[in-house]
């Protein structure tokens, strides 16, 4: 408990220090036509996750050397990108290297090149999708809290990592949420926040899936997954570049031009994911047929809701 208390104070204090530095060196987000915000806000508050990662390594040692090396590479890369936009020629190779390190740490046994390739594409896709979902106050902090808490609950049943590993990032998330989960956010996560916590979550999910041989647990990302995948399909149909910034996600439409506030939508996404995650935990020991049925129903309902709201908004607000 002493470690957790000291960690909380350390992350809180260093984040306050970061705010002063960010203000001094102009590390800020300026609203544009694609933003869901209207005020200039400090960027990079998600450095809290990086601070927590460093603290955990200093406290426990390099328990997962390949994972931690990849984590620090991708976190540092994202932090630099928050300060000064990096060329994709620099960013992409280093990001892929970090993900390969994550996979090397988490995958067990001799895997074929095809499995490695598929795993690399999926892991990189999840991390980038998680980053794109970071567009309104509270959504990254709140959604990550639900996912990490769900993984911690599952860890009580099957023990795939030390509890302290997950709790460390939950504490960092709570500290970040204190400054971000509010009507007028003190800071945004930045790439360093959304990419770093996504990297951690992908690693934890990989550990669970490799231990159980069951991809059922990918439903811990069901809400983000449906929003991201259907938005990609929607943008491809419009022949848009899916790698460019946009305002086509459902959560973005619900906030603007929709009538909801940032925190309301963040809360709705949290609640729906919490319900699905609880179902996953309760069905962890159920038959494959039951798990498949639950997965199909959950994803179908989310897809129907997504499509229905989008069609309604296109008619109501004249969106294309």
Distance between the termini: 52 Å
**Rg for CA atoms:** 19 Å
Q: Helix count? A: 12
| Classification by helices and strands | mainly alpha
Binned strand content: under 5%
Order of helices and strands: HEEHHHHHHHHHHH
What order do the helices and strands come in, and which of them pair?
Blueprint: H1 2-24, E1 28-29, E2 41-42, H2 47-60, H3 65-83, H4 88-106, H5 113-132, H6 139-158, H7 163-180, H8 190-212, H9 222-237, H10 250-255, H11 262-282, H12 288-317
Helix pairs in contact: 1-2, 1-7, 2-3, 2-7, 2-8, 3-4, 3-8, 4-5, 4-8, 5-8, 6-7, 6-8, 6-11, 9-12
Summarize the structure.
This protein has 320 residues and is an all-alpha fold. It is built from 12 helices and 2 strands. The protein has one domain.
List keywords for this structure.
320 residues, mainly alpha, two-stranded antiparallel sheet, 2 strands, 72% helix, globular
Task: Give an overview in words.
This protein has 320 residues and is an all-alpha fold. Helix content is 72%, strand content 1%. It has one domain (2-317). The chain contains 12 helices and 2 strands, in the order H-E-E-H-H-H-H-H-H-H-H-H-H-H. A two-stranded antiparallel ribbon has the order 1-2. Helix 6 packs parallel to helix 8. The mean pLDDT is 94.
